[in-house]
Hints:
Blueprint: H1 3-11, H2 13-18, E1 36-38, E2 47-52, H3 63-69, E3 73-78, H4 95-104, E4 113-119, H5 121-135, E5 143-146, H6 164-175, H7 181-187, H8 189-208, E6 221-226, H9 234-238, E7 248-253, H10 264-274
Parallel strand pairs: 2-3, 2-4, 4-5, 5-6, 6-7
Antiparallel strand pairs: 1-3
Amino acid sequence: MGSAGRLVRVIDTRRATVNTVHRHFDSGEWSVKMWIRCLQASPNASGVLLCFPHGGGTAGAYRKLAQALFPRIELLAVQYPGRQDRLGDEMMSDIGAIAEQVVRESTPPAGRRLAVFGHSMGATVAFEAARRFEQRGHALVALFVSGRTAPSVVQPTMLHLAGDQALLGDMRRLGGADSNVVQMLIENPDLAEMVLPSVRNDYKAVETYRYKSGPDVSCPIVALRGDADPSVTETDIRLWSEFTTGSFDTREFSGSHFYIDDHVDEIASLVGSRFD
Length: 276
């Protein structure tokens, strides 16, 4: 699916609401409140993959991956506040605080192994969540970080303070040659009014994040990138090796920043191999 399809998923509140899970499980299952969406329930799955979306994104960004992992692994995706079925909730721009909220409202299931996955901004949130899970004594199968530099790399821009045109320009840069998201927003001011506030908020989250030294993770880290991603180089992605005492591996896929939808089966296979 191209960039237009991704944008449709961002603003399609009805489809997300149908798949919303507001349930509280007892021992042995996830305790889910407002932050987590189950895109395809698989109660007999042996593993759980908790996914954090990219900046401006929603839980629905992982729908294809959820289908590819079914039924062996159940994918749960985080829904950030201020979008889709959480449109009325105040947005948050503190990555550490977002991670803390997710971990507080999530109880890893007994007997079902857990891995964490994040793309772009979501990779940094996933890292902070993984730290907190391990600090609470929850072992992780792996941490998958995609399309994002290591936590210690300070974002040099402050686009969240710039005008809409600067923000749209960076969205075009990340979208790759096939992106028409920016043009859609330019041609549809009402659509831009819906989409840009969450995008700007998440740019702020990324640009103001500062890594705090302390225990990192002991689980394996698998770092992924698109080979034409302008935001993260192969050297950048390898810096993630410094943030785990466990093993480290990298994978590169053809494509720009939003390469995942074009490689869903390969990524599902990679994730599944970590649960073997």
